[in-house]
Amino acid sequence: MEAVEEKEEVEQTPDDVISLNISDFLDELELEGEEASVTGNEADFDWSSIDTSNLPSSYKTNSRQEKKLLQLADHFLQQYSHLCPDRKPLFIHPLNECGVQKFVSTTVRPTLLPYPDMYYWSGCASFVSNYLIMEPLKCPITPPSSLYSPTTIVKYQRGNCFDFSVLLCSLLVGAGYDAYCVHGYATLEMCSLDQTQEVCPRLRKPPEVPVKEDPNKYRIKYPLEPKSQFELQQKAKEEEEAKSTQEEEREEEVVEEVEKPKRDSLHGLRVHAWVLVLSGKRKVPETFFINPFTGNDHSTKDESFLGIESIWNDKNYWVNMQDCRNGCKDLSFDLSNRFCWEIMFPESNEASQLPTESPKNSTDDMQEKKKIGRSFEMPLSWVDRIKVSCKEYENPFPRGKKVILYDKAKQEKWAAYANPDGLVERLTVYADSDRTEELEVKEWFEHRKDLLYMREVNHQTQLITDHFNPGHPLLLKAHTYTSLEPETGHTVEFYHKARVDGLWKRSETATEMTEYFEEREDLLHKRHIKFGERDQGMEMAGGTAEANARPIVQIKEYFHRNPKKPADEDIEERVFKVIDDVIQLTYHLEIYDIIPSKVVFARVIGREKREGEIFLSRENTVKYQPWSSEKHKNMRYLYNLLWELRAEQKDLKQLVRDSEAEMLNILTVRENEEANIKLTVSIYSAAQREQR
After folding, report:
1. 116 within domain boundaries
2. Closest CA to 273 of 153, 376, 196, 182
3. Looking at residue 547, what is its pLDDT?
4. Staple partner for 200: which of 172, 406, 472, 657, CB 3.0–4.6 Å?
5. Which Pfam families match (predicted)?
6. Based on the domain organization, do 470 and 337 belong to the same domain?
7. pLDDT range class, residue 560, cuts 50, 70, 90
8. Are residue 320 and residue 458 in the same domain, yes or no?
9. Is the pTM of this model over 0.85?
């Protein structure tokens, strides 16, 4: 590290020094503007006015062991600044809320909160990011002069990136993770919590799994299919049109690039703090970073992290001795490697590995550091136990709700029971980056008595889709509609395993109804019904729903293949044309068949239909069964088949009426549920139990 720094010093020319001075001057001007904006944003809260009179004595004084620790830290800092004069000062012993110097490792207070989610890193990170209000650093290129205790940060629910990181690290270490606070550098977007250029996590598509090719080199190579010259000409025309559209898109991209923000003049200098979680403990497979502002995990090769100065936990302090010109991509996080990380308190009898090219008058300090380092034990944290009540845990948002702006999206979060309809999250998707035209809105609910947990509203199609958890009295899974009025277009999905008929989906309009089934013994998988127009006189007269029922024109059913039956006896499709009095059967195909077998029973022209009468003759029966057995040619067999079909047609008409009545009941129940929304109170919700 020192060799690299010396090279850089040798290569600097007078022109470089002048350019550096100019850039420093510009940076100072920008810093003045940023400090003014920060003071304007922080005018609503003054940290100097907080009450520290009731804090424990450990907050106001240092014990003998802590004084010894600060002395050792000063020795370490002197050697570091002497041997690495070009590096920034370390963040070692800032002032706490009482104005007392405290070593950063003793500010970490390992705590395991008594909530199930807080046993996992995702729950801890989500709680910290939601519970605290983000405050930017007063000076973006230097660490803060003070570091308050996690208990004070939890009390006032606000802090900067260092406060966020120390609190999150305390919770992670308490949960058993190998976690560390990181003092380093990051991009402007990460330091200022600007996520307007990122895609919302709710909208990210899952990574596609690549299809593995067959490695068998001895597989059969089939001849190429013949190609049509006309199709090739059409493809060439389409490619030319695609090129023209691509050029237009490129022009639009150029316009978008112009609209992008300019490069940050302080890039690489902005100080940030985050959390490092090493692999090993708690079965963590890979080392990763956590941004405490968002609670999201990041790879150690993420380009948003530009460098690391030091890391610490409740046991020790390490200084990064690796080159960070490429950010954190090439860094090794093997803390036992003394060439990559300089440890403040050696865990063994090994001496410190800081460069030894120091003056002779500092050898006494080195020897004293060795003696202290070998016999020194890190004192316990001076911070009181971190406590979060049930009410605070269940309502983590200090401003009532949290709003996050993404690229063409806005996410809003509320605590449970904050809204009377149980709304806890809303995601709005926009057509433009300025977020003016809404495309889609998704809402998530909790503790609804009707078991509604998500609602999707598409503003382009005006479709509303409600999703339900299992357990609804009507076995609803999803409901898509534009209005709760009947016959206006509804699609209902059910939990089919809880139904006797195996129905999992039903779509209904004013003229049609389609039902889909699964796992039925008769292998029925689809039923389609066509309705005719109502009689205007009956509709005007009013009356019951049965009197105003839509006339059934046709019922069509589809069946899966039954391998236990011959193909020419296994029905694939049957059609009941109720008004025309025609029944049509289509059978499944064998493997090498082309045309399926069919049987059609039609009404005899010129003969009046009598109720309960079944008339069968060769004139009203059309069949095509080239591979059928002798029984298909027997008229008595066809007569019995027609008799069964007539009885089934009557039952099907009743099933259709039952389906219509069920849809009307669903709409009535849903309308009542939306008019009288009720929330269930969990037995684990202490705050709601107290209100009750």
Report:
1. yes
2. 182
3. 58
4. 406
5. CEPT76_peptidase, MORN_DRC7
6. no
7. very high
8. no
9. no
